[in-house]
TrEMBL record:
GO molecular function: lactaldehyde dehydrogenase (NAD+) activity
Pfam family, one: Aldedh
Protein species of origin: Mesobacillus subterraneus
Keyword Nucleotide-binding on entry: no
Ranges where the Aldehyde dehydrogenase domain occurs: 16-468
Protein family: Belongs to the aldehyde dehydrogenase family.
Keywords: Oxidoreductase
UniProt name for this protein: Aldehyde dehydrogenase family protein
CDD domains according to UniProt: ALDH_y4uC
Key word Protein transport present: no
Length: 473
C-alpha cells in the first residue's frame, strides 16, 4: 500500500516514500509519503484558503460534519482498531477502546460546535462606560497546526482536529511517523462527511523537516502539540507569537493509603501501569504505598501483573505487546539496570524478547534514578513505601513533571489534603492517575506542558475573543 499526502482534499504524490513496519513483527505495512518542505507550504496554502470558508460556515454545519465523522468511525470501528494495532502495536482490546473514545471525542466536538458563545459586558460598571451595549464573540483563529504522538494515534488527533473544526478553523496535521495511517483515515472520513477541501490537510515526514515549517510559517496562528518535553520545548522556542498548547509527558504517581481495599483496586492499578506497554502519558510509573500494607500490596501487584498476557497485538487476549521501537526497549532496560545498580530490587520482568519488554516491577528505586525522575514510557513501575501521608505527597511533587496523580484513601481529610497539595493538572481521588474521559479538562503543570485539552477547553484556546461595543445616543 502506498500512502500519499492529503492536501486540499486530494491525495498528493511526493518524491520520497518511507517503508512503515509493524513494531511487533517487523512486517512492512505501507510506503508512506515523506513530505518535502514545499509540500508542507502547499498544505498551509490550502489551509489558509479554507480558513475563510470555515470561518463563515454555520455552527450547525460544523456540528453535523463532526457528528458524521463520529458515525463513520463507528461503522468501521473494527477496521480502525486493527489499523491502530498494526501501526502502533497497541493490543487490539486497547485499540478498540481508543476507537470508542475517538467516537466520543468527535461527538463532544460536534456538541461543542453549537455552544461557542460570548457574553454581554456591563460597560456602565466603570465611570465613562455609560450608554453602551457591549458583547463578546469567539472567532476562529484561522490555520492551526497539529502535531501528534504515536501512542493514541486516533484519539489524540481527534483532540486537536475536533475542537479546531468545531471552532471554525482549518488544520494542517502532522501525525507521528510511526502512526500515519490512522490519521490519513480520519481525513477520508472528514471528506466523506462534507468538510470543505483544504480544511484538513495531513502531511507526514520527519518531525524536524515538517515540524519546523509548521511551527514557523506566519500563517499558522496556533501550534497544538502532544509529545515529548524535548520537542515541546523546541516548538515553544520557535513559535514566536503564535499560540502554543503543549501536552507533554510525565512520570505519574499513585499513592495507596492504609485501609484501601487492595484486592478490589489491584486489577485497575495494574492496568494503569502496563496498558499500551506503559506508553501512556499518565501511565503509573511511581507507586507510594503506606508501609503497613506495602508487603501485601507488592505481593498482590506482582500476582496481578503476572497474569498479563504478553504477545501479538492482534490476538484477542493480548494485554502487553511490542514497544514502539527497539531503541526504546534498550533505553528502558538500561534505566532498569541503573536502578538495580543503585540498590533497587527487581521483582518482576526486566527481560525483553525482540521489541517486547516484559512487565517490570522494581522496589525502592532511588529518587534520582532515571526510572524515578525521568519519564520511562515503558511497562516499568516501581513501588516505594511511606509512613506519613504528607511525605507521600512531597515525594509525588518531587518531580519535574505534573500531569495527573492518583490517591487511594478512605480518609476524607487526607483526600482533601492531597487535592490541595498535589501540584499536577488533575488529582484523581480513589482512582488511578491514568483515568481520563474526553470532555474533562486535561493538561499538565511544570514540564508536563501548558494549556488544556478536553473539547470545551481546547475550543477556548482555539478561538479569539472579540469585544463589540455600541455607543448609544
Ligand atoms: P515525540 O517524539 O515528541 O513526537 C511527537 C510528534 O512530534 C511526532 O509527530 C514527531 O514526529 C513530532 N516531532 C519530532 N520532532 C519535531 C520537531 N523538531 N518539530 C516538530 N515536531 C516534531 O513524542 P512521541 O514519542 O511520539 O510520544 C511520546 C510522548 O508524548 C511522551 O512524552 C508522552 O508522555 C507524550 N504524550 C503526552 C500526552 C498528553 O496529553 N500530555 C499524550 C500522549 C503522549 P516524528 O514521529 O516524525 O518524529
Amino acid at each position: 500500500m502506498k500512502q500519499m499526502l492529503w492536501i486540499n482534499g486530494e491525495k498528493i504524490e511526493t518524491e520520497r516514500y518511507r517503508p512503515l513496519t509493524n513494531p511487533f513483527n517487523g512486517e512492512k505495512i505501507a510506503d508512506v509519503a515523506e513530505a518535502s518542505q514545499s509540500d508542507v507550504v502547499r498544505a498551509i496554502d490550502a489551509a489558509a484558503g479554507a480558513a475563510r470558508v470555515m470561518a463563515s460556515m454555520d455552527a450547525h454545519k460544523r456540528a453535523d460534519i463532526l457528528r458524521k465523522v463520529a458515525e463513520l468511525i463507528q461503522e468501521e470501528r473494527e477496521e480502525c482498531a486493527r489499523l491502530i494495532a498494526e501501526e502502533s502495536s497497541k493490543p487490539l482490546k486497547a485499540a478498540r477502546a481508543e476507537v470508542d473514545r475517538t467516537i466520543m471525542t468527535y461527538t463532544f466536538a460536534s456538541e461543542e460546535a453549537r455552544r461557542i458563545q460570548g457574553e454581554t459586558i456591563p460597560m456602565d460598571a466603570a465611570p465613562g462606560g455609560e450608554g453602551r451595549v457591549a458583547y463578546t464573540v469567539k472567532e476562529p483563529l484561522g490555520v492551526i497546526s497539529a502535531i501528534t504522538p504515536f501512542n493514541f494515534p486516533m484519539n489524540l488527533v481527534a483532540h486537536k482536529v475536533g475542537p479546531a473544526i468545531a471552532a471554525g478553523n482549518s488544520v494542517v496535521l502532522k501525525p507521528a511517523s510511526q502512526t500515519p495511517l490512522s490519521a490519513y483515515k480520519i481525513a477520508e472520513y472528514f471528506q466523506k462527511a462534507g468538510l470543505p477541501a483544504g480544511a484538513l490537510n495531513v502531511v507526514t515526514g520527519s518531525g524536524k523537516n515538517v515540524g519546523d515549517v509548521l511551527t514557523s510559517d506566519d500563517r499558522i496562528k496556533k501550534v497544538t502539540f502532544t509529545g515529548s518535553p524535548a520537542v515541546g520545548k523546541h516548538i515553544r522556542e520557535n513559535a514566536g507569537l503564535k499560540r502554543v498548547t503543549l501536552e507533554l509527558g510525565s512520570n505519574s504517581a499513585l499513592i495507596v493509603d492504609e485501609g484501601t481495599d487492595l484486592q478490589k483496586v489491584m486489577p485497575r492499578i495494574v492496568t494503569g501501569a502496563f496498558s499500551n506497554q506503559g506508553q501512556v502519558c499518565i501511565s503509573i510509573q511511581r507507586i507510594f504505598v503506606h508501609e503497613a500494607v506495602a508487603e501485601e500490596f507488592t505481593a498482590l501487584f506482582i500476582e496481578e501483573a503476572g497474569k498479563l498476557k504478553v504477545g501479538n497485538p492482534l490476538d484477542e487476549d493480548t494485554d502487553v505487546a511490542a514497544m514502539i521501537s527497539a531503541g526504546d526497549v534498550e533505553r528502558a532496560k538500561s534505566w532498569i539496570q541503573e536502578a538495580v545498580g543503585n540498590g533497587a530490587e527487581l521483582v518482576l520482568g526486566g527481560e525483553s524478547d525482540q521489541q517486547v519488554l516484559k512487565p517490570t516491577v522494581l522496589l525502592n528505586a532511588h529518587p534520582s534514578d532515571k526510572i524515578s525522575c525521568e519519564e520511562v514510557f515503558a511497562p516499568v513501575v516501581h513501588i516505594n513505601t511511606f509512613s506519613k501521608f504528607e511525605d507521600a505527597i512531597t515525594r509525588v511533587n518531587e518531580s519535574q513533571f505534573g500531569l495527573q496523580a492518583g490517591v487511594y484513601t478512605n480518609d476524607l481529610q487526607k483526600a482533601f489534603k492531597a487535592a490541595r497539595d498535589l501540584h499536577v493538572g488533575g488529582v484523581m481521588i480513589n482512582e488511578i492517575p491514568t483515568f481520563r474521559v474526553d470532555h474533562m479538562p486535561y493538561g499538565g503543570v511544570k514540564m508536563s506542558g501548558t494549556g488544556r485539552e478536553g473539547i470545551k477547553y481546547a475550543v477556548e484556546e482555539m478561538t479569539e475573543l472579540k469585544l463589540v461595543s455600541f455607543k448609544l445616543d
